[in-house]
Design a protein that fits this description.
3 strands, homodimer, DNA-binding, 8 helices, three-stranded antiparallel beta sheet, Arc Repressor Mutant, subunit A, mainly alpha, about 170 residues, globular, about 70% helix
Chain lengths: ~170, ~170
DNA sequence: CAGTTTAAGTCAGTCTTGTTGACATTCCAA
DNA sequence: TTGGAATGTCAACAAGACTGACTTAAACTG
């Protein structure tokens, strides 16, 4: 089916045209990837930034603001605005650190967890459908290429998260 | 919790944990994907929006404004702001349509093509490295999952572009 | 032909999310 | 103990998206 050009495929499959198709696929797919949570959040006063914060706080409860902003790749000022509204609205709790009182440790409240579930359910449903359509083998390849595409420091952070999952 | 189906790797590989890893991989990879062009554009007065416009005008020379804004998924007001600066700066040419004079057909000037090359060279280099690291089989899977992740109407548009690529 | 629709552009205002700069608090090490 | 580094907050601003209202020109349609 797919293995064409025996011998020369390692050259053939790296044509500019093939690469460009990959670039465009990435662009369109990311739109689909964010579409469902975006729709949910559009109603409330929240956006993608809030989703990301909620996701990673859920992922690593008790994480500090500094941790979070490195993961998200934004300035602390930018993250702070998002965090402030989430705390005000009672979705996130911010606790002063015990050993280091400069730090704030972040946790989702019950309401925060409820929203997180709503958002990630939608995103997982999309992911699940795509995985099902493509099959297990394709999923393995998908993950390999994505990991290779990350910046080095982000790949490390991703690996840490991944390993902490189980 | 989850009942583990006997010999059911097709079930096992769709655990919430696996899906979540895919979601995070997508998030981090997209950051890498856009990092290089973003760095190049940061110096000039341009941003990601300009890159996208330039990319698709290069991809389909003579495309109309309406075509473009459907492809990009933004409003005409938003696209117009970007397009206006590109035309003013002599990177894009806007020609009144021959058969339908309401339409404007968009083309890159030489300067526009030069910038397009600079941007896509950087992005292709990243893509090429990721493809090389992951291997041909992984690339096929990568593309399959991405296509399955797109919204239906975008997938159609993506296919049209892909087929027009040669 | 008159009336409607379509394509493009513009103006004004808002929202989200990113940025810098200035600043307070806390910790730690010289 | 004092000065620097780390952590987080507040304020102001910019980019880029959005909606809504409107104009102009051209094409289509009954």
């Amino acid at each position: 089916m797919m293995s064409d050009a025996p011998g020369g495929e390692s050259l053939l499959f790296l044509t500019d045209e093939q690469l460009r198709q990959g670039i465009e696929a990435m662009f369109f797919a990311y739109r689909g990837f964010t579409a469902d949570p975006d729709r949910i959040l559009a109603g409330m006063a929240y956006g993608r930034a809030h989703h990301r914060a909620i996701h990673f706080i859920n992922r690593a409860p008790g994480t500090t603001v500094n941790n979070l902003l490195i993961l998200l790749g934004v300035t602390k000022q930018s993250l702070n605005r998002v965090l402030r509204t989430l705390v005000e609205d009672g979705l996130v709790e911010s606790k002063v650190g015990k050993s280091d009182k400069r730090e704030r440790h972040l946790y989702l409240t019950e309401a925060g967890e409820a929203l997180e579930r709503k958002l990630s359910d939608a995103q997982r449903a999309r992911m699940r459908a795509a995985y099902r359509a493509a099959g297990p083998q394709a999923v393995a390849g998908f993950r390999q290429v994505l990991e290779a595409m990350m910046d080095n420091d982000l790949r490390r952070k991703y690996q840490v998260l991944k390993d902490s999952g189980t």
